[in-house]
What does this fold into?
Amino acid sequence: MGRRDVSENDFSNFEDFLDAWSRRDFLRGMGGSLAFTTFLAGGMELLAACGGGNSGTQTNTQNAKRGGHVVEGNPTDIANLNPLYINDVYSQTIAYRLYDALLSIDNQANLLPNLATDVPKVSSDGLSYTFKLHKGVQWSDGQPLTADDVAFTYQLMYAPEWKGAKARYRPQAEQYIQSVTAADPQTVVIKTTKVFAPFLITFCTGTSGTGGILPKHVWEKLRPEAMPSSEMNNLPTVVSGAMAPVKWDKGSQYVIKRNDNWFRGKTYIDQHVFKVTPSFVANANLLKTGEIDIGVVDNSVWDDLGNSQSVNRVGFTRPSYDYYLHNLDASKTPKAAIFGDSQVRKALYTALDKKKIADKVYFGQATPADSIMSSAQWAHTTPKTQYPYDLAKANKMLDDAGWKKGPDGIRSKGGVKMEWELRTNAGNAVRETLITVLADQWKQIGANVATKPVQFPQLVTQLSQTRDFEMILLGISENADPDQTQYYKSTSIGNGALNGSGYKNPEIDSLLDEGVQTVDRNKRKDVYAKIQDILMQDLPTPLVTYPKGLWGISKRVQNFGVGPWNQYGARPWYKDVYVSDGK
Amino acid sequence: MLLRFLLRRALAAIPVVVGVTLITFLLMHSAAGSYVPGLSLNPNLTPKDVEQLRSELGLDQPIYVQYLDWIGVAWIMQKVGLAGVLVGAHGITPGLLQGSFGHSMVDGTAVGGQIFERLPNTILLTLTAILLGVLLSIPLGVMGALSRGSKLDHFFSFLSIAGVAIPQFWLGLMLILIFSVKFHDWGLPFLPSSGTTTPFTGGDLLDRLAHLVLPAVVLSFFYLAIWSRYTRSSMLEVLSQDYVRTARAKGMSERRVTYLHGLRNAVIPLVTLVGLELPGLVSGALVVEAVFSWPGIGLLAFQRALAYDYTMVLGIVTFAAVLVVLGNLVSDLLYAAVDPRIRLQ
It folds into this structure.
């Protein structure tokens, strides 16, 4: 299978938060405290997913062999596998194999039933969901998995008596969950506090980290305070998913094996090893020698990996983007005088050769951005307002807006010189290159831009708290739901929220509210189309590219249908994965 | 005599270790962003939630209380009823003095457990490399000295300069490219390039050795380069001494002169050098571990530093500091053992 271009497949959604959260940077940023207690985040910094690079869920198991193992390589060891605490994608990849959630999602970020027999319809008041569970589902120790387990798991997150368990999503759960009750052993009723369209995808699919159901008969024996440091967070004893843990050799590998009690039947593979590798670059070598079967590879080695006879490559636009924020808040920076002029923002964006950037900076493994969300989102549209690369036009726009070039070639207007500082997170090679490229391109239209890499925690503090920056370039890994509240709503400025540019637009505010209160997807899509149109005209935070997810998969591994929404979490085709040599 | 020496050295080590813990602790606290960078990033956390989390982590206490808590003094004070002295203290737990390094901020595991789980891997790698380095550098150094100015000597000089000049990561990558990737392409038996064992199937002695070869060679090449130069120059110096001439004048065989009188004296500086590497036995070899994904202490420290896992980094640095002190002590003892002129005082 050759290289894939995503536009052909029209994948959908997902990932999220500052892209720096994903992959290597993820842990870097998380760092801090018992990250699990602190980072409750709204379905945010976690990735997850479903669907397929191989066009989705079409799998062929006619010649499938039973037995054997696969080795998946990641540069980071796991952290915490408990759905209450998960905070990184690698842990989620394993946890998803261990604990089933009520629902799952496919490659378009559509909801799929999982432990529940159907995707529930919301009640007429928009506030409650009734789930019917499959009958005969068993935990790996033979105990039945019932509605009691489900209710217990959610109570750990929202009920006051379990506060000591420090579930990572507690603030969000408290905000949105009214109650979760077991009507009978096969029926769960979830009542929400308000109408919230992203509810099921956020709380019931595991795509944002939470959602996996825990065995009540095991965890209820623990004091809540003992839960965050329980050894079962790393090596669960009782699980419900496709696989069960075998061992964790810290820093080198995590091994899981087939769970014969899985309610969907046995997987073809016996074992799945998650091996810690040196880097995404090294993954390419390890794939070539067969030391790993599956792994994400760096942009720079993608073409070279194509020479290998034993490895298939799967590339697709992943739900993420790299973008830059103008600081529009005059109380925070005098540069708002420059960025506050929408003609300037448009001219700057027009002066960027996004195609060339994608080719050179990303080694061709990115698509130029055309909206304010990635093309992997189901709500993505291409607004009419576009800014194709045109230096002459950009220069003219600035001339017309009254920005005159001085003798040094730098423009100014009313005593304000067109110069500022562009920051990004240090240690991310692509972004560090990107800021110098942007500065260079803007120099050609008379802007003097200094570049400065900053440590990630500092950068995010500047973006979300102090807001004492001029311009920041960052990446976002998107959520499975297209809600943009945290990036553009006027209430999301400061206090840790991500509207760092300080963008305020009453029309956008009300559209964003409408977006999360509209449950019907087609109607929602119209709302988000309007949002994208407006934001592309206003350009508070222009997007540069949609980077690709690049996977190498050994040819001996079949049906591994990785795609934009199922890179790390949901892999609905997992049951059909087999190795052709049976080893 | 020996006992007194040990006692004195142990006492002298205390301020060093305390100083290291203090400096490390303060550096960590002044690190980029807040002490808990993730804390302020969550859009759904109200300032009240953040306060509560900081309180749960003990970050609202005065810094000296946090330090005393971490090293375990606060715990002792609490036991003897002095907790009142620590204004603003709460949630005091056993610390370093009680043998507890605390829990990782990233995955919640015990820091001590992580360290001791990685320790065997690191010792295996560094000890192999040091042994290889010693075993090869002495004969190379001696041969170089005995054939000073010859083509062989020049070749050895070239090797050792290369060993010092070539960055370990580059050498590692080149060896991986050749002995792993290319050998695989050519259909030859190839060496694995990451980890300590083959996942799933591996784990027997041969498999472990195969995984050890590349990282150990890279690491020992560096040792070899330095130590063989020292051996060579030290040997040259010794061979020009009066007592060597006397030995020759007595009619002693050249072989006995070289090895009995020459080498025995020439390796003394080498003992110091090797002794200095002893802390590396446990602190790990960061670059090599990172290139080969060798699950050792060095890699752990590196990854956790990037992840802002403060407790883990503090634990590792403290652990390594204690071992540096111990390593120097062992080196002093060895020095006295090989050189009767040096007395422990």
Remarks:
- The CA atoms of residues 173 and 198 of chain B lie 19 Å apart.
